[in-house]
Write a structure and sequence with these properties.
11 strands, about 15% strand, single chain, 5-stranded antiparallel β-sheet, globular
Length: about 375
């Protein structure tokens, strides 16, 4: 999640658990600062941009490492605040819950988090909440702002802090339930069209949990379905895109590609841009403006050669995206302009096999 939300969550947990002993203001500040600590791993100087991408949210987000770190920071709180001198267990519990809740909400985003490292090193990423979701963050921010202006604990504030944490947690649960409903609906629609994807994932479109994007990968193509949480099937739109995997035919073994394929769980696409093979994580960002894109090979006179990976940035949104998103959120289905050439009709059998697709572009030669 974004840094502001992580601060707010840590501050909320800190205020609820430590506020009765040291006051809401001090507890919120201490909790917010502790809630940002796991993300300091971004300061680690990785030499490889792909490692910086795939290894973020690693050891500092592990429940086990956080348990080992808890006594250090818990003891610091005990020594720093007089009101906690006889509250060592409460202080340790607060620190661990602040760390763990940070990791949990990160694990609910699509990026993924190594919460069980090193016993289970692969990242866990549900993808049930967008990385910035105001509906999740606002209740926590209200309580945190209140706490910053409140020096003394009152039962009324305690009830508000508890309610904010309960509401935000319930929202996370509702997101998981919505994701399952969206994926079930998408699989049913695709099956009726004769499409049986190799892998499928639903995650929310930006800043909300009411309008979802479902990515269905099938062979050398992938389908973007945009599905409202509430509304008839007629409001669902689908776009079929080439994955560009033919550009990899002459690449041979590539450690960079293996890392990206594993981290993305197979949700990746390939483009040939200015003589470079660029691999994108299809889960993060909107076609074609993906957030994480890496050049891993380049064309030479003798074909493709692996290169030192370099990140290639793109615009965060395409023209017309905001109007398209607002229209669909308001219940007025609209086509996404940048994807319009790939619009597909999934109403008939074997729709994916029969769908007309724009040419994938030039293929790198061997």
């Amino acid at each position: 999640m974004d840094s502001l939300t992580q601060f707010a969550l840590g501050a909320g947990v800190g205020a609820a658990l430590l506020g009765p002993r040291i006051g809401p203001r001090k507890a919120a500040i201490a909790g917010g600062l502790l809630g940002t600590l796991p993300d300091l791993d971004v300061l680690y100087p990785f030499d490889d941009p792909i490692d910086a991408f795939t290894l973020h949210r690693g050891a500092t987000h592990s429940f086990f490492i956080q348990a080992l770190a808890t006594p250090v920071f818990g003891e610091a709180l005990v020594r720093l605040f007089e009101g906690l001198r006889d509250q060592r267990l409460r202080s340790y519990l607060a620190v661990y819950l602040i760390f763990v809740t940070h990791a949990i909400i990160d694990a609910l985003t699509v990026y993924g988090t190594r919460i069980f490292w090193p016993l289970f090193p692969d990242p866990v990423g549900a993808g049930s909440i967008f990385i910035i979701d105001p509906l999740y963050s606002i209740p926590l921010l209200v309580v945190v702002i209140w706490a910053l202006f409140k020096g003394n604990w009152t039962p009324r504030f305690g009830k508000a802090a508890t309610a904010a944490l309960a509401v935000s947690t319930a929202y996370l649960g509702a997101g998981l339930a919505a994701q399952q409903a969206i994926e079930t609906r998408a699989r049913t629609l695709l099956a009726e069209a004769g499409v049986y994807p190799d892998r499928l994932l639903a995650n929310p479109t930006p800043f909300n949990s009411l309008f979802w994007k479902v990515i269905a990968v099938t062979g050398d193509r992938y389908v973007n379905l945009y599905v409202p949480l509430f509304g008839p099937q007629e409001r669902i739109t689908a776009y079929i895109h080439p994955r560009g995997t033919e550009h990899l035919a002459c690449l041979g073994e590539s450690e960079a590609l293996e890392k990206l394929a594993a981290f993305s769980d197979g949700f990746y696409g390939v483009d040939l841009e200015d003589g470079e093979v660029v691999v994108s994580d299809l889960r993060m960002g909107m076609t074609p403006n993906y957030v994480f894109r890496f050049a891993i090979a380049e064309e030479t006179g003798e074909g493709l050669e692996a290169m030192a990976p370099e990140r290639r940035r793109s615009q965060r949104q395409a023209e017309g995206d905001l109007d398209w998103l607002l229209a669909n959120l308001s219940g007025e289905p609209a086509l996404r302009p940048v994807e319009a050439p790939w619009l597909a009709d999934l109403s008939g059998p074997a729709a994916l096999a029969e769908a007309a697709r724009p040419p994938a572009g030039p293929t790198a030669g061997c």
